[in-house]
Write a structure and sequence with these properties.
seven-stranded parallel β-sheet, six-stranded parallel β-sheet, disordered N terminus, alpha/beta, 3 domains, Rossmann fold, 572 residues
Length: 572
């Protein structure tokens, strides 16, 4: 049974006063995105604003609506999203927020909240095309649908602001189709750093009876009807595993269908726990009562199918059970996100360190995320690691997935598990890099020796060179190779660093008036002294070419050099 004492409230003296740093009480990341969105909408027609579940999308977008110089249309697709938006925006703007839904027709209020299902056909086309100058779409991952596009097309001069926590769609349709620009995303990784999310403790349980391998894929995800059949059969096992891991946590459980939701809730009640199921057919009065009981902690478990994925706010929930396997990262993120919101007062603390410490000391230090899995077969299913895997080393993500599946998480948070695995991988990579670097240095020394040693007899001094190029280890360029060939120097396996030294040596000999590389090569083959002045070397080589005498006698060479010194002329 739920022991409410474990869900303690923070001590009164620990609660800070509401933040007075922002005139509208916005957090710094929210204010940044308000300013950014207003700037982007000054240039582009459309803009995407992505904030993780619980980061304050409605408040952030509501502030944009407040400052917008014209009439604003707020679109949503569910009743509770409409009513929550009206309440929140009215509190933020101190304006009357009108409604366009079913039999309710809006008046001339500046801000209108409207149902997408209502605003269509004649009801849409009768409205002036310039009625609104800004349209804000809540849960905008639905915004690529024809019903939304018809509204965007009708109000053709209106700017478009799309807000969502999950910009990825299961069917692969990108939101770039409706958004020309985007604000800096603020995902779960950012939320953990800022302190707007609690750490995730991942747990995975395998139920042998669940075999997803034969289930078809529809619209990018598992076929819902076939999936529901399997989950219903495992409802008792799901309830038992949920109770085993959640103990005194309040938990939101997601199932694929109505029957499975009610079956899991019924089993939990039979086990003596406070549990209720809600679905699309649950009467409004009953749904409101169930959610109120959950928020007030007199109910430990809520089981639902596709109802609480959007717009539901329950900071007391410290556990989420995903008994609805999915291939959709967006859907998985929506489900998991329902348990990540910290206690509300923590957001008023000034620094990330203070917020993270407050979360650790609060009644909700983390969220236990329970994945119910079975044989996946060909399907690639989402798991807890996908929530933070975007900026992580792929190998680390895969290793942590395997650990969690084998029950080797040891109660650590997902962040801790990924940090440990990344550290291990980086250590291995560093060791590997050191070995490769050692081997590369040895190979370089060997290559340099094989290239440089024969040139030493030509008078080459490796220490005598100018600045090394920025990329000395790269192969010699085409221009460098041509220069090497022209100067009778080795050109295979030569690096740019070596060429720089050869060129520098050539320049020094030129300044000192000594024989060039090519001259020295000829002199060396003739077994003559290579350290000749340029004019004398030219005279000797000219004599050898003219006479065809490629190994002249020492006295002949000395005579030619003497004549060249005295006359400054080549000797024929």
């Amino acid at each position: 049974m739920l022991q409410t004492s474990l869900f303690r409230q923070p001590e009164a003296e620990l609660k800070p006063p509401p933040s007075a740093g922002d005139p509208e009480g916005l957090r710094d990341y929210q204010r940044h995105r308000v300013d950014q969105a207003l700037t982007l909408l000054g240039t582009f027609r459309s803009c995407l604003l992505t904030l993780h579940t619980g980061a304050g999308k409605t408040r952030t977008a509501g502030s944009i609506a407040k400052h917008w110089p014209g009439r604003v249309l707020w679109l949503a697709h569910r009743d509770f999203l409409l009513h929550d938006a009206r309440k929140a925006i009215s509190a933020l703007t101190n304006e009357y927020i009108d409604l366009e839904k079913a039999s309710w027709h809006c008046g001339d209020s500046r801000i209108i909240v409207a149902s997408v299902q209502t605003l269509k056909g004649d009801r849409l086309t009768r409205k002036p095309r310039d009625m609104f100058s800004l349209i804000i779409t809540d849960e905008a991952h639905h915004g690529t649908a024809a019903s939304y596009r018809a509204i965007y097309d009708h109000f053709e001069s209106a700017k478009l602001l799309h807000i969502t926590a999950t910009p990825k769609r299961a069917d692969g349709t990108g939101l770039w189709n409706i958004s020309e620009s985007h604000c800096d995303p603020f995902g779960i990784e950012s939320g953990l750093e800022w302190g707007s999310c609690v750490p995730i403790v991942p747990v995975s349980e395998f139920i042998d009876k669940i075999d997803l391998s034969k289930i078809k894929t529809q619209a990018g995800d598992l076929a819902l009807g076939e999936l529901e059949e399997q989950i219903v059969e495992s409802a008792a096992s799901i309830a038992q595993l949920t109770a085993k891991h959640m103990t005194n946590r309040q938990c939101i459980t997601f199932t694929p269908g109505v029957a499975s939701a009610h079956a899991v809730a019924a089993t939990l009640r039979e086990m003596g726990y406070g549990a209720a199921a809600i679905d699309a057919d649950t009467e409004d009065r009953q749904r409101i009562a169930i959610l109120r009981d959950f928020r007030e902690k007199s109910l430990q478990y809520i089981v639902n199918c596709a109802i609480l994925t959007e717009g539901f706010d329950a900071p007391t929930a410290s556990g989420v059970c995903i008994a609805r396997p999915t291939k959709s990262e967006a859907l998985y993120t929506q489900m998991a996100g329902r348990g990540l919101r910290p206690e509300g007062w923590i957001g008023d603390l000034k620094t990330a360190q203070e917020r993270q410490a407050a979360i650790a000391a609060s009644g909700k230090p983390n969220c236990l995320l329970l994945d119910i899995s079975g044989r996946a077969g060909r399907h690639s299913l989402c798991s807890a690691t996908d929530l933070l895997g975007g900026k992580r080393i792929r190998e680390a993500v895969e290793a942590v997935k395997e650990k969690i599946a084998k029950g080797q998480g040891d109660g650590k948070s997902l962040d801790e598990l990924l940090d440990e695995e990344e550290k291990s991988i980086k250590q291995q990579e560093e060791e590997s890099r050191k070995k490769i670097a050692q081997a590369a240095r040895a190979a370089e020394v060997k290559s340099r020796q094989s290239t440089f040693d024969p040139l030493v007899k030509l008078g080459f001094d490796e220490r005598n060179h100018g600045d090394e190029p920025n990329d000395p280890g790269l192969p010699a360029s085409k221009e460098d190779v041509e220069w090497l060939k022209k100067n009778a120097l080795p050109f295979k396996n030569v690096t740019r660093g070596m060429v720089a030294k050869f060129r520098s040596q050539a320049a020094k000999w030129r300044r000192d008036g000594l024989a060039s590389w090519k001259m020295r090569s000829v002199l060396s083959r003739a077994k003559l002294d290579v350290e000749m002045p340029f004019s004398e070397a030219g005279a000797v080589i000219g004599y050898m070419k003219e006479r065809g005498d490629w190994q002249p006698k020492p006295e002949t060479v000395e005579r030619i050099r003497k004549i060249a010194r005295e006359s400054g002329r080549e000797v024929r």
